Task: structure prediction
Amino acid sequence: MDIVRLMVLLAFSGTVAAQPVVPKDTLPERFWEAGWPFGLGDPPPSWGGPLHVDRITLGRALFFDPLLSIDRTVACASCHQPQAGFASPQALPPGAAGKRALRNAPSLYNRSLGALHSWDGKASSLQEQVVLPISNPNEMDLPLADALGRLRADAEYVKRFTSAYGSGPTEDRLADALSAFVFRLTLADSPVDRFQAAHDRAALTVEERKGLWIYESKGRCWACHSGPNFTDEEFHNSGIGIVDNKPEPGRMAVTGDVADRGRFRTPTLRGLVQSAPYMHNGSLKSLQEVVAFYRRGANKNPSLDPRLKPLDLTDEDARNLVAFLRALSRRSRD
Ligand code: HEC
Ligand code: HEC
Result:
């Protein structure tokens, strides 16, 4: 291939990659009926409250609708794609009008268990979080008043809001419907859960079992990726995103506390096979890269979390740890 054709091809593929897509809704029709999954511990108290199916399905329609973006090209699902574990396959996913999100879009599974949302915890409830991307200039770039105007001008949405809430669209109802949908997105019941919670030894292969042991022992992963959702929901500095010893503010942008510089929220380890690339800036492309990153002691910087030190792992340990992480993504019925 001559160099000119190669350059044209590269330029073209770059343009294609930057276009937002609006993926199809591939969830089972009544997905919430599957209930709280095995292995995820206790559900949050509101899980067992009244099930407002019309609110969940309204939130679902909104989630897949590009009407909520300024140029009608980007839906929530463009960055939180069902087939990508409700995360984005792009490090910094494209937003409306040729913009790009400033961070990687995290998986939306099991957010009902989180108290603070976003990589820096800027939102203290799901309701608060779900409307942020609509007016965010790098994401959907549509002022909330305009989003509500569009919904009020749409007879079908007015009908659905009225049947779910008694009357038409308001900001609170928009937030409630979107969060009602996100709240029901769960993932667990993996072979690891069968092994740990149901004592089914045959659920994991020998390699996966050895990987679980690395996670629990000299890998020290459990120190932060703890509990049934494999996250402490706390903020730690692992040096991701640090260039020339300059950490991004991270959690400090929210709290103003210098001790929070470069700290980001620990993400879940569930569903990783689908949700690559990893970390708040999408800088690690594979689970092998993630394990190599921890093995060398994460990224050195003045506020690195003291739990992150070079790990004494063999190549075989590293492979087994990856096998364990992959097992956390399978459903036990697969
Ligand atoms: C252009 C891409 C993009 C679009 C569109 C988008 N998001 Fe996000 N989403 C992100 C990014 C990036 C983050 C992380 C934000 C941060 O840390 O500052 C995020 C975070 C979230 C979180 C918090 C997850 C967590 O782990 O804390 C939720 C919930 C969420 N988005 C829901 C939605 C909903 C609902 C919509 C549609 C109204 C939406 N998103 C549209 C990119 C997007
Ligand atoms: C000191 C706490 C801490 C320890 C120990 C730790 N992690 Fe993390 N982990 C984090 C934080 C915080 C992030 C997000 C970092 C960021 O993006 O800035 C993260 C991100 C990840 C991600 C990316 C997930 C995603 O969706 O992007 C994976 C995978 C991961 N860790 C695996 C591991 C493994 C495997 C170990 C053990 C070898 C481990 N972690 C040890 C805190 C920790």
